[in-house]
Amino acid sequence: MLKLGLYGKYNGVLYEITIDMDNNVKIMTDEINNIDHTFVDSYNSGVYSKIVNRSELTECVNITYFGMVDGERVQILQEKEGEFQISTGSMIVGDNLNLPRIDRETWLGWVPKRKVKLIEEKELIDPQFL
Hints:
Structural class: mainly beta
Shape: elongated
Radius of gyration: 18 Å
Strand content: over 45%
Largest sheet: 10 strands, antiparallel
Oligomer: single chain
Number of strands: 10
């Protein structure tokens, strides 16, 4: 599966990062081998989280993806078995790729992975500014 969003290392292990409504930094994982007794599964969902200090995080990045489909640049939103969900704000690109228009400026659809050249972009983030 694609890693989209904020990620950083805590004690040398890569975790997804989120900020809660109280501006706390939380690390999250569903990998039981990467947790100890300080992690909690607040919603009994199999996702464990822990509040950490920003100073404890290293190598923080914001990961985004875009794809090239038939020569057109599109956003990659998610993936499922054999397909990517793509989106564009361009009427021309949406029409060229036969994407359904879902609102005034958005075309959205699923395409086979084999049709997409996937390009990952990583932006380094200073954890003090999360």
